[in-house]
Amino acid sequence: MSPASTIEGLRQAQRAKGPANVLAIATEVPANYILQEDYPDYYFRVTNSKHLPHLKDKLTRMCEKSMVYKRHRGDSEQESQSVYVYGTVT
What we know:
Elements: H1 3-14, E1 32-35, H2 39-46, H3 53-65, E2 70-73
Antiparallel strand pairs: 1-2
């Protein structure tokens, strides 16, 4: 047996016998989101950093210059309260 026929046999064995089917096309988008324009207020409220207005101004400029419209979250703010409290188990 020549090497070419062995390779061809492998290729034939690996091929599908019928046409390809697309079973589903979808995009999963979480229901919870934060608009990019509201994100600096949200972030500084959640992290208790309202006393740092110069950083909030910088984050606001970054959010304005980015092309992101909204930020999606996997959970709601009510579901993940322990994330926002320093030292708690998440």
